[in-house]
Amino acid sequence: MTTPHTWRKPTRSSTGNACVEVGRLADGAAVRDTKNRTVGHLTTSRTQWTAFIAALKTDRFD
User: At a CB cut-off of 8 Å and minimum separation 6, what does 11 contact?
Assistant: First the structure.
């Protein structure tokens, strides 16, 4: 996987610096720390990203 061309901050992120940015990849997504962008990013496949978002929406991370 490669680095996304554009990054976006999720709409539900906090107003401070405690959030992440998400970038779309051809076959998945990338996530990076907003306040420390230079350390790199985490990439996931489309299947992994879809499962992660589904788990967030169903509140499986207590």
Answer: none
**Using an 8 Å Cβ cutoff, are 20 and 33 in contact?**
yes
Q: Which amino acid is located at 3 in the chain?
A: T
Query: Distance between CA atoms of 60 and 58, rounded to whole angstroms?
Result: 6
Q: What is the pLDDT of residue 6?
A: 92
DSSP letters, 1-62, are ----S--B--TTS-SSS--EEEEEETTEEEEEEGGGGGG--EEEEHHHHHHHHHHHHTT---
Q: What is the pTM of this model?
A: 0.74
- Retrieve residue 45's tokens: 């496949």
The pLDDT of residue 54 is 94
